Structures are given as C-alpha cells and as structure tokens.
Amino acid sequence: MNQTIGAILPLALGVAISPIPIIAAILMLLSPKARVTSVGFLLGWLVGIIVAVTVFTLLASVLPEEDPDASKPIQGVIQLLLGAGLLVLAVGQWRKRPKPGEEPMLPKWMQAIDKVTFVGALGLGFLLSALNPKNLIMAAGAGTAIGAAALSTGEVVGVIAIYVVIAASTVAIPVIAYLVASARLRGPLDALRVWLAHENAVIMAVLLLVIGVSLLGKGIGSF
Description:
Blueprint: H1 2-16, H2 19-29, H3 34-61, H4 73-95, H5 118-130, H6 133-148, H7 153-180, H8 182-221
C-alpha cells in the first residue's frame, strides 16, 4: 500500500497545482455570490476527481494478473503513453507562456463568472476536474497504479481518498478559509489570482514535464 501511495502522490499534486481551477475558485470568491458559487465549484471539483480516478482504478483492476517478479508490459505501455502525453502537454503549455510585458490570455468563460449559478459552478468544477485532458492523464496514471496493485477493497478506498484529498486541496483550502474569514482574505486572494494568471503556463509546463518524465521512467521499469 505504501508503494502505491508513493506512486500516486506526484499525480495528485499534478492535479492540485493547476492554476486555472484555482483562479476560477478565487474569482468566485471575489464575486457577489461567493458563498454559493464557490461551494458549488468545490463540490463539482471533488466529484469529478473521485469519478475519474475511480473509473480508471476499476478499468486497471480488470487487467490480467501477472507474476509480481515478472515484467508488467501492459502497465508499462500505459505509463509510457501517459508520460508521452504529459510531455506533449508540457510543450504546449510552454509555448503558451506570455512574452515579457504581455498580458496572459485566460479562458473567456472567466469573464462571465459573476453570473454563474450554484448549478453552473457545480458543473464547471466537474468539467475542469473530470474532463480536463491533463487531469484525465493524472487520474489514469493514479488509477493504473491503484488498480494494478494487490490491495484489499479497504486499502483501495484509502489510497483513493488520499489522492482525492491532495488533488482537491488547493481549491478546498481557499474556499473553506474564505467561508471562515472572508473579509481578511479578499486582498491576498486577489494578489494570488494575478500571480497565478501570469505564471500559469510556466507552472504547468514544468509540472507536466516532471511528472511526464517520472511516468516514462516507471513505464520503462515495468519491462
């Protein structure tokens, strides 16, 4: 179990350190309907993460069992493909980084975030966590590691819970903190939003590169 937890930790961090959903959550916290939309977004974000990693865990669990001392070609091929996918995404993110003096381009839907309802925020959180290509690759990597390990049902649930808590933490912490002390957090949250908007591409490029290389290494080691 400890080995599986070690394998999913960088993948969970890969989901957690995602500037776009954090910026979306902060924008909701700075909007007139902060308490309603931010909670909806957090719930959608959590459900999306849970659904994605659970689906890939179930898919990986039906792979044919192999001798623990033998190579694991199927798992290795999956990890190689996932690692290569992350490297492609890393290159794309690096090319999107703003030039010196240039304002970063954020998604157009962020401009209308003040008009988002609870249901809309819930759906947006789910889409960003469950259907985002980068998060899907992270979930697939984590699900493959969990499903291919010889764990009991309780251990699988425990590892998934650890993955979800870490992956959701960067959205959950500001939302919960704002609900507790909203007046004192508006300034720091706005400053964080501006910084993340400027550094989004660079942060994601470096993160995807590191995790992609890690997955490639694990894939090669499976043969």
